[in-house]
Amino acid sequence: AILASAAGLPRDGHPTGPGHRIHHIRKQRANERRRRLEQREHVAKVQDYLASPEAAAQHTKLLDEVKKMNVSERIAAALVKVIEETESHEVHAEFGRRLSAAPGAPPPTPPPFFPHAWDAAELGYLDTHFSDAAGSKGGTLQYMIDTVWIITAALLCFFLQAGFGLLEAGALRAKNAKNIMLKNLMDACIGGLVYYCFGYAICYGGASRPDGIDGNAFSGGGLFKSTEPYDGEAHDGIWFGVDVGMDTGGWFRTTSNYWMLIDVEEDEYYIFLFQYVFAATIATIVSGAVAERIQFRGYLIYSFFLTGFIYPFAAHWTWDPNGFINSWGICDYAGGNAVHALSGCAAWMGAKALGPRIGRFVEGTSKSLVTVNFKPVELAQHNVPMMCLGLFILWLGFIPFIGGSACYVNFQLGRLCVMTTLSGCSGGCVALAWGYMTEKHASLEQAMTGVLAAMVGICSSCGCTTIWAAFWIIAPISVLAYRFGLWFNIYFCGKFLGGPVDDPLGASALHYWPGVWSMIACGLLSDPDIWDATYGIEFSGRTTKVEDLTLDDFSGIFYGGNGMQLAYQLLSVVVITLYGLASCFLLFYGMKLCGTLRVPEADELEGLDATHHGGLAYTDTDVHIVPAGLRLRKKKADMDATKDGSESPEGTESHEA
Hints:
By secondary structure, the protein is mainly alpha-helical. It has helices spanning 2-6, 18-50, 53-67, 73-101, 120-123, 125-134, 141-158, 160-171, 177-204, 269-287, 296-319, 336-354, 384-403, 413-439, 444-456, 467-496, 507-525, 528-534, 564-594, 601-606, 608-612, 628-643, 652-656, and strands at residues 224-225, 247-248, 251-252, 361-368, 370-376. 60% of the residues lie in helices and 3% in strands. The strands form 2 sheets. The protein has a 3-stranded antiparallel beta sheet with strand order 1-3-2, with no helix packed on it. The longest helix has 33 residues, at 18-50. Residues 1-14, 102-138, 208-213, 222-255 and 646-657 have low confidence and may be disordered.
């Protein structure tokens, strides 16, 4: 409780989520606007008084009193001005003190002000005073610290795009290296376009109501009932973050527009930047699952919808104080469910709709718990050191990805950064041991995926579990969850779901199953002390009344909890999973129906770099680098020339050798 108070935020709703931070800033801004309105009303009263006959009579009366002192006209006028200025400053200061002490109360009625005492500087006094007091424009040290930290975290998280690109390009064949790097580049570009235009509005759009709350349970913005007459002003958020403003029988809609950040004020920009980086990560995760055979235009289409529509709704449900999942009191601190489980569903559905790459599965029989009528073939990785470099970049980016998820500097920051780092260490060690047991050698690829799986596995649970639990329990089980996901894609799907799922990077297994385990871990290992300091216990969406909730309802089962938290964690996983599968089914199978999903077989064999992007990523003519399709095409041309009776081209023998 002390730590929560030190954070300077109320413990209602979802205090550490990005949505709550945005609402906190907007509530401060609403309070500042109310104070400014009160001060302007006061200034208007003063100006009205100055123009009134009473003010002139007051001035004349005071001047007559001074003249009785037998002084000249010039000295009398000077004395009157001094008296008026002194009284004006005293009254003004007293009014400011009263207004500061009771910001919600009606402004006190000031005594008369004198016409000669007012100038432009004095009329701006209250503006300056209350602007500094509110601090929402950068007037507080806390705001400046938050801004610097979150922008730094956003820049490091943006570098995740480079890590994903290197990891994916190295794990694929050389003939598709340029294709996968271009896709990662366009994830950042398309993601920025759509999140700027409407993604952020769907996540967190809407102007604050008088009580500082905006939005609705489904999307950014909403409607609310007001007894005040409609005046055309912004009263509340709206559906999908935008509206035109109208009176609908007492249900007021706002004129505010959060599309393209039109009505987003400067003090909120740093949060937008961090949230954009989160959103762009979604499409990048999926790119590895659909690699080497998806059409480029199909990739752009799914990146557009996934970043601009599918993810923003899930983010609003999870992190906005009005989101229905958020109201259940679930712990998804850094997106184990809203980011990783959702992207895992999208990756699985995309790979399922595309079908396996040519040569990935061949005729035969194989068995791993279940027997299937095919044999999986591991296709070559063309640059494992590139993969390892990408892994280190991802490890670096994951630390601010999790540490910055609160969107302000809170008491969790240092603990989260340490937990993220140590979880990666634990996952790498466990995966290396797994590689020794299964492959009989030290596997770099196994160790790299173990590091990533472990960090995904704490994205939800980091907000309410201890470091020792993350290192010794959550991270190791995350590695096993990833291995289960690989088995599920090949053998379970091959046996029971119509055919195996070819996921070249294992993205669906790496992000969905550890993400789900992270949600479950909250229900098992949630520490009541950490939970209370981070979230509190006031959540209105549960079946239990708010006043009847206790810490036992939010504690992990191994900490004496009653299991309610585990139930709500699982319920939120089911919601996001069904939503992700359904929406991505419509997206990918819709593109498949329109013929915009998979490239032709000939293009896939030759490589997408040569057939779609103007040439190979590498200029080296080494036979081990040149894609097989180009070698076969040159060999066929040489054979055709020999059949025509022409002389064999120079170097044909050496090339074939």
